[in-house]
Every structure is written in structure tokens, then in C-alpha cells.
Amino acid sequence: MGLRSVVNLDGRADSDACVVRLDGDFDNAAVPRVRESLNTALSEGYRNIVLDLSGVTYMDSSALGFVVWADQRLQPVAGRLALAGANADVARILELTGLIGVAPSVVVLASIDDALSGRALSSQRNGALWVESFEFPADAGQLASARGRLTEIVAPLGLSDSSVFDMKVAVGEALANAVRHGSPHGRSDTVCVEVRAYPDRVDVVVTDSGCGYDGAVRPSRDAFAPSGRGVLFMRALMDGVDFIPGVGGGTSVVLGKRRLVTA
Questions:
Q1: Which H or E element spans position 192?
Q2: How far is CA 132 from CA 58, 135, 138, 196, 197, in A?
Q3: What count of other Cβ atoms lies within 10 Å of the Cβ of residue 61?
Q4: Whole-angstrom Cα distance, residue 171 to residue 193?
Q5: Residue 91 near residue 100, CB atoms below 8 Å
Q6: Residues near 113 by Cβ (< 8 Å), separated by ≥ 6?
Q7: Containing H/E element for 62?
Q8: What is the pLDDT of residue 153?
Q9: For a FRET experiment, which of 48, 58, 166, 189 has its CA 20 to 30 Å from that of 13?
Q10: Which domains are present in the chain?
Q11: Which of 234, 235, 232, 254 is nearest to 243 (CA)?
């Protein structure tokens, strides 16, 4: 597969947009190079990525895995991935996966021209009904008020009392980890919280300033260990938990909770 260079479309699209153009097979061998290109684009400040599929003649499950990975990578930075120009066969594969419409930061468009028009890249919040954010100093004494602020923000969503409690506990664990483990300069660091409301779910993104954490739970033989259960709580109480490394350091924890919307 030929992977042409990342192109900055200055003057044709927003200044924070670029294109990755692919040729041939989008398979397991190609995915690492495509990931590298997307990471390079993000490190250079781009948040809107157009993946030109017009030259792709084959796509397998590895490429679909890339779409999932890209969605998780782009959500914390309010990015957008437009899959543009796929032929009928590749478009059918994308449709069969059921990913499109579920992955919040990913859209499929018929042509590169549609993508470059800005139609796909105009919404930086990926279709959210609303977004609200706040931040606080990395001080354990601030955790209770941060949890209270979260509860106030999600109150209009009509979640059940048990769902709000689950979210408060799970996000509370993420906040506590951000203060204890993700703030190397103590109170001089800041913990950022962003709440994104969608028609079918709410996402809470907690971002710290630490050296990064992949969310892996380290096994312990000590059942009475005083710590180490926070991630287990998050995953048990929420419908989705992802750990996304920041481009310039730190970690963003994305915690998702489904919401039932009645007419």
C-alpha cells in the first residue's frame, strides 16, 4: 500500500485540518503507518483529519480497528475524522461494521470535496447537544466540590438517581487519580473536566498533567491493599472507559454513561 504524505490544506479548509491520502490495501501492514501519520498531524496541532480513501481498493478488520482507535484518540481533543471518497465496496464494509454513527468523532462522506467544504469538520464537539467544562487545582481538598459540580452539570439530563450516583463514584475515582497520580507539581497543576451530552449518552473527560497512564490494572495478591481499585470501579460503574495519552503529556480518561431518552 502506498501512503502519501500528510498534506496541510491551508486555504481550502480550516487551518486545523489536514488530509492523509491512501492508495491500495488498507490492511494490517498499512495501519501502523496511518496511525503514525495521524499522531504526527495531532502533534503539529491539527484536530480535523480527512482520510482520503479514494485510492483504497481493499479494507480489512485492521483498518476498522484503526477507526475505533482514531475515534478514541480524537475525542479528548475535540477532533474529527472524515472518511472520504470510498468506493462502493469499501463503503459497504464501513456500513456493515455499524461503527459509523456510533463513533462520535467519525463521519463518512462521498468525496474529498465534501470533506474540504467544511461540512464534515465544522462541529468540533462531534454532534454533542452541549458541552460544559470546569477545572480545579490538583488538591484533594477540592475533590468534593468537583464531584458536586459534576452532579449539577448532569442534573438536566434526566438520569436515574442510581446512574448519577454511579457516575459520581466512577468520575470521582478518575478525579482522585488525577490529583494523586497525575499531578507531579501538586497544587500547581490543574485537573480539567469536560462533560459532553449526546442524545443517547453522556461522556465525562478528566484530563491531568502527569506522565501518562494506560489504564491497565496491576494485579495484587493483597486483598487488603489500601489502593488500586479505582479503575475497576470506573469500568464496573460506567458503560465505557478509555485512557487516552495526551499529545504533550498527561492522560485523558473518557468515561461514558448511556442515557435513556423518552419521547
A1: strand 190-197
A2: 41, 11, 19, 7, 9
A3: 11
A4: 10
A5: no
A6: none
A7: helix 61-74
A8: 95
A9: 58
A10: 2-116 (3.30.750.24), 130-258 (3.30.565.10)
A11: 254
Taken in order 27, 29, 32, 34, the sign of the CA dihedral is negative
Q: Any idea of the CA torsion for 150, 156, 157, 159, to the nearest 10 degrees?
A: 80
* pTM of the full structure: 0.52
Residue pair 194/131 in contact by the 8 Å Cβ criterion: yes
Q: Are 84 and 51 in contact (CB under 8 A)?
A: yes
Main-chain phi, psi angles of 205, to 5 degrees: -110, 120
Rounded CA separation 217/177 (Å): 13
Residues belonging to the chain: 263
pLDDT at res. 145: 97
Q: What is the DSSP letter of 43?
A: H
Choose among 206, 205, 185, 186: nearest CA to 140. 186
Consecutive H or E run containing 255: strand 251-258
Which residues, given as ranges, of the chain have pLDDT below 70? Answer: 1-16, 97-103, 114-127, 212-229, 247-248, 260-263
Among 239, 182, 238, 187, which Cα is nearest to 213's?
Answer: 182
pLDDT in tens, 28-45: 888 998 898 888 888 887
State the pLDDT at residue 132: 93
Q: What is the pLDDT of residue 11?
A: 30
Euclidean distance between CA atoms 187 and 139, whole angstroms: 5
Nearest to 129, CA basis, from 102, 148, 106, 157: 157
pLDDT for position 193: 96
C-alpha angle 101-249-193 in degrees, rounded to nearest 5: 55
